[in-house]
Each structure stands twice: as C-alpha cells, then as structure tokens.
Amino acid sequence: MNFRYPNGKVFQPKESTHSPYVKKPLYSNRGMTLEEDINETNLYYLNNQLAVIHKKPTPVQIVNVSYPKRSAAVIKEAYFKQASTTDYNGIYNGKYIDFEAKETRNKTSFPLQNFHEHQINHMRDVLQQKGICFVLLRFSSTNEIFYLDASFLLSYWKRHLSGGRRSIKKEEIEQEGHKIPLGYHPRIDYLKVIDKLYF
After folding, report:
1. Structural domain harbouring 166
2. Which backbone phi and psi does 109 adopt, to 5 degrees?
3. How many domains does the chain have?
4. Which CATH number belongs to the domain containing residue 167 in this structure?
5. Are strands 144-149 and 95-104 parallel, antiparallel or unpaired?
6. What whole-number distance in Å separates Cα of residue 134 and Cα of residue 190?
7. Tens of pLDDT along 47-95?
8. How far apart are alpha carbons 159 and 166 in whole angstroms?
9. Does a structural domain hold residue 185?
10. Is residue 5 part of a domain?
11. Residues 7-58: tens digit of each pLDDT
12. How does pLDDT run across 136-163, given as a tens digit for each residue?
C-alpha cells in the first residue's frame, strides 16, 4: 500500500512505526519507542485527571481499494490530505498544549532536518496565540530526553536559515532545555517542566 503526500511524494514510514512487519529499534534500557512512552504518559495523565492530551490523527484520503475476498478490503493507495503539523495537542490547567516528539542517534547534536518548515510555522502560530508549545527530544544512544521550548527551536531554525548550523548542539539543548528522567508512572513526566515554567 502506498501513501502519498499532497505533492505526490511517496510516504516513507518512520522506524518507530507500529507495523508488525517493521522491526523496532533496540536501545539499551529503553523497552519502548518514544511515541509509546509518550502515549503511555498521556494515558496516565488522562486516567489521573491531570491533563487531556492526545496524538493527532493523520487525515488520509483513500483512492484505491482492492477486494481480494468478500469479507476483506485492502487499501492499495492513499494520500495524506494535508501536511501534518505537530504530533500531540490538548489541554492542561486551562492552557492549550501542543508539541512535537523527535529522536536521533546522533550523540552530539540534534539535526534540524528532523523538522519541516510547516511544523515550524505551526509552532510559531501556537506561540503567538499564547499556547504552550515545545518539542521532546530523545538522544537514543544515551536514552536522554529533553524538553525544549518551541521559542528556542525557532531561534535555532532562524540561525540555520541565516547560514548557520544545520543542527542544535547537545550543549545548547542541555543549557536551554530541561532534561526529563525516564520514570515508571508516568514514563516521561513533561508536566513537571510545564509546572516549573508556567505555573
């Protein structure tokens, strides 16, 4: 089955996809993908009435369906209706929450190519409306997770567009961001950082 973006480009799934046919990456002391950790965290927040935050569904237009059997339909081709914005959004303590989650195997920096211009523009729009917007960055080689406010990401993106670095140095993330220790319940307690910064 082929999924295509609005420009016709074929979609290449991330390594962390939940397809049973895609082998999940193995990292020491990790156990789950970043997406699974965040989804479990959000479920914990929801069950404990702390916040309502969900992964955004991706709108898809199905254009070709095969019916090999009467009882089963197989999607052969589909298109993304629009470019995605960020991964997660919701509400916490009366404030709109919007964030993106990314990971890298790079040990010393985080490549800006992991972000798309429409995502950057969306985060800028959220900040302009006084929403809480950030990115969760995971260095998979060391299993370190950082909360980085979107305002800092925008400044690094602007630096890149001006001919500067095409990545964010890990030292910069450590200085401007907030390291989140991996826990049990919740797995990635990013609300602690939001409390510290906003409440």
Report:
1. 30-58+83-198
2. -160, 165
3. 1
4. 3.40.1350.10
5. unpaired
6. 10
7. 999 999 999 876 666 777 888 776 777 777 766 555 678 999 999 999 9
8. 9
9. yes
10. no
11. 666 666 655 444 444 444 433 334 468 999 999 999 999 999 999 999 987 6
12. 999 999 999 999 999 999 999 999 999 9
Q: Report the residue count for the chain.
A: 199
93-113 per-position pLDDT tens digit: 999 999 999 999 999 999 999
Give the three-class secondary structure for 192: helix
SS3 state at 79:
strand
How many Cβ atoms from other residues are within 10 Å of residue 154's Cβ? 16
Q: Return all residues near 1 (Cβ < 8 A) that are at least 6 apart.
A: 74, 75, 76, 77, 78
Alpha-carbon gap, residue 53 to 49, rounded angstroms: 11
Task: Note the pTM of the prediction, 2 decimals.
Answer: 0.76
Cα separation, 172 vs 109, whole angstroms = 9
Rounded distance between C-alpha atoms, residue 49 and residue 3, angstroms = 36
84: amino acid identity, one letter? S
Compute, in degrees rounded to 10, the torsion defined by CA atoms 108, 83, 14, 149: 30
* Confidence (pLDDT) at 23: 43
Check: CB of residue 89 under 8 Å from CB of residue 54: yes
Please, are residues 170 and 156 in contact by the beta-carbon 8 Å criterion? no
- Whether 155 maps to a domain, the answer reads yes
CA gap 42, 53 in Å, rounded: 6
| 45, part of any domain | yes
CB contact burial 16-49 (16+ within 10 A = b; e otherwise)? beeeeeeeeeebeebeebbbebbbbbbebbeeee
